[in-house]
Design brief:
By secondary structure, the protein is mostly helical. The protein is elongated and about 70 Å long. The termini are far apart.
């Protein structure tokens, strides 16, 4: 008899709601957008 594979993270009991998905995207998207904009602004200085 072989051992059953175990998962390190349990499966969620309920699917994610629309609000939690939006919050997750905002949590990641706002800092990402800020970082990309700052990189773009600093890159423009190289071409002046």
């Amino acid at each position: 008899m072989s051992p059953q594979p175990t998962s390190s993270t349990p499966a969620p009991n309920e699917p994610a709601t629309g609000g939690s998905v939006v919050l997750a995207w905002l949590f990641v998207g706002i800092p990402l957008a800020w970082g990309v904009s700052q990189t773009f602004i600093k890159a423009l200085a190289l071409f002046k």
